[in-house]
Amino acid sequence: MSEVALKTPTETQSGNLLDVQEIRAQFPILGEIVHENTLAYLDNGASSQKPIAVTETLERYYATQHANVHRGVHELSDRATEAYESARKTACKFVNANRTEEIIFVRGTTEGLNLVAESYGRWKLQPGDEILVSEMEHHSNIVPWQLIAERTGSIVRMIPMNDNGEIIQEDYLNLLNDKTQIVAITYVANSLGTVNPIKEMVRMAHDAGAVVVVDAAQAAPHISIDVVDLDCDFLALSGHKMYAPTGIGILYGKGELLEAMPPYQGGGEMIRRVSFEGSTYADIPHRFEAGTPNIADAVGFGAACQFMWDIGIDEIATHEKELLDYVHKCADRYEDIRIYGNAKHKAGVFAFTLDKVHAHDLGTVLDRQGVAIRVGHHCAMPVMKHFNVAATARASFAVYNTYDEIDRMFEAINFARELFG
Ligand code: PMP
């Protein structure tokens, strides 16, 4: 047992009346037995589990609504189109965009970021232009910029972070100049949990004449997103990390930018007229949704937004913050636990290493105890380089996690310590 007393969330949540057990009951998978132990799922940063509200929406969609969208003259096509476009309205509300046309359904954050790099980047970037990318980015917010930089002769520059895992704002300010065209930053760092001051960083970029692309993959499950308040130019997120199905996410873009941008992919759905003399393109958002979209999972995405609203995003954030405080408090008791990411503002992520036990061995021992965490470089090799480690272990929280699961993680860590120590 960890030395910190076992608590239930409802006991400690000052005024936050989240009924975690009732929420857990909506996730059948949490009752799974893994290696003879009840599952303790602490790998939500990689992908969250899905509530019945989402899986039932998918079943209902396929049982009563499915056909291809925007094409048919028949009833089912109308139903599918209505469900799909209604999900777009929900997604618009989820990020508080001004217009539904500013929401493009994509496969996930990776596709959203590649879309911006390929379309906006290819259109705007000139040789010598600069793209600023922070040191704590996930590879999906680094590599697309390197690819487009290679093709356009522009340059990717790194905005450094300090040892707490916070972007060094003075360095950021110094890097911004009249060659800076794009700033690509994460809202929440997946490998550290840092919540970046996006609003201020956007303001600084705009002062320098650059557009800002926000990776909100790890923010969407934990933070109420408001693209109008942030004033960001683009923002991408993945459904599967916020209780929605895999294979669906959204890219928000300011209408005037999206309207001016060339298509990303060509095909059906994205055209106005096609002839061998040349083709013209559909208005946004369809210009950026070539081919049959992922209709069912978009509808599931809408259900996931509703699931989060029903609980309350602030309530989810408060619960996860309490879990985060608890896990830090537990870890403080052990001298051989090294924590990565001590930013003042953190969300949902606890990254650590245990002296004398390799992160992969630790992950395997925890798995045998039914505790699922992520180990490795977390698709953030520059972060690993900064801290001079090959891999870390990472527990990441969702609304259904409990103090008991954190206690189980520390028990399993104790076991690993005994095995390898
Ligand atoms: N950015 C961040 C911060 C992430 O955590 C992830 C997923 N680990 C991604 C981008 C990529 O998301 P996806 O694989 O869903 O496209």
Can you walk me through this structure?
It is globular, with a radius of gyration of 22 Å. The strands form five sheets. It has a seven-stranded mixed sheet with strand order 4-10-9-8-7-5-6, sandwiched between helices. The chain has a four-stranded antiparallel sheet with strand order 13-14-17-16, covered by helices on one side. Strands 1-2 form a two-stranded antiparallel ribbon. The chain contains 15 helices and 17 strands. The protein folds into two domains: 121 residues, Aspartate Aminotransferase, domain 1 (Alpha-Beta Complex), CATH 3.90.1150; 256 residues, Type I PLP-dependent aspartate aminotransferase-like (Major domain) (Aspartate Aminotransferase, domain 2, 3-Layer(aba) Sandwich), CATH 3.40.640. It is of the alpha/beta class. The chain binds 4'-deoxy-4'-aminopyridoxal-5'-phosphate (PMP). 4'-deoxy-4'-aminopyridoxal-5'-phosphate (PMP) binds next to α5.
Spatial strand arrangement across the major sheet: 4-10-9-8-7-5-6
The gyration radius over C-alpha positions equals 22 Å
The gross shape turns out to be globular
CATH fold topology of the largest domain: Aspartate Aminotransferase, domain 2
What is the topology?
Elements: H1 9-12, H2 20-24, E1 33-34, E2 37-38, E3 40-41, H3 52-64, H4 75-94, E4 103-106, H5 109-124, E5 130-134, H6 143-152, E6 155-159, H7 169-175, E7 180-186, H8 198-207, E8 211-215, H9 227-230, E9 234-238, E10 249-253, H10 255-260, E11 271-275, E12 278-281, H11 295-311, H12 313-331, E13 337-340, E14 349-354, H13 359-368, E15 371-372, E16 374-376, H14 381-387, E17 392-396, H15 403-420
Parallel strand pairs: 3-15, 5-6, 5-7, 7-8, 8-9
Antiparallel strand pairs: 1-2, 4-10, 9-10, 11-12, 13-14, 14-17, 16-17
Helix pairs in contact: 3-11, 4-11, 5-6, 12-15, 13-15
